[in-house]
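Course assignment 3, question 2. Fill in each field.
Student: A.L.
Task: Predict the tertiary structure for the chain below.
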Amino acid sequence: MTSASPAFLWALRENLRANPIPIENLLLVVQLTLIAITMATRRPPTRVTHTPLFWLLAFVATYWAFFMAGFYQDGRALVPRWISVAVAVLGLIINIWARLSLGRNIGFVPAERQIVTTGAYGLVRHPIYTGLFVGFVADDLANFTAQNLALDLAWVGLWALRTFIEEGFLKQSPAYTHYMTQVRRRWIPGIA
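Answer field:
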């Protein structure tokens, strides 16, 4: 450790005390770190789709925000900021919990890995998507325009379509079919 290190750490501490990092930003960093770690260490699939359309859908749904970034507009807040931040934090917490529950059984396209039935996956079959949907609500509450809402609804539609395609692929496995009878809802416990 150099003699500049304590001074740097002190300056960093003082800067964070004066300008704390918003919790939603910290949670986003945690989520992105989890994505990177789990994707880099994921379990190899026992079976994976070879349908190009499914690969294209996975790509478009995953990177929609990058493709549409120029179409999103500055909008108006529909609720006080603390409410939209609370909804965003809720979405990130759901997503982090789901990713931790899923562990290394994550993938980009429909693929059969170890079936997870505990944690968030004991409540709904696609809790990562649930967290994403809650995040869309938070975004539209904080930055509403009709165009932003339409783009987010299209994005939700892509994720919903991805859910149905993924389940169509996975239910070819008797273990996943059994899981579907145990956990009946896709996104919202007791509702959908």
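Instructor remarks: Residues 22-182 form a domain with the Four Helix Bundle (Hemerythrin (Met), subunit A) fold (CATH 1.20.120.1630). The chain has one domain: 22-182.
Grade: pending
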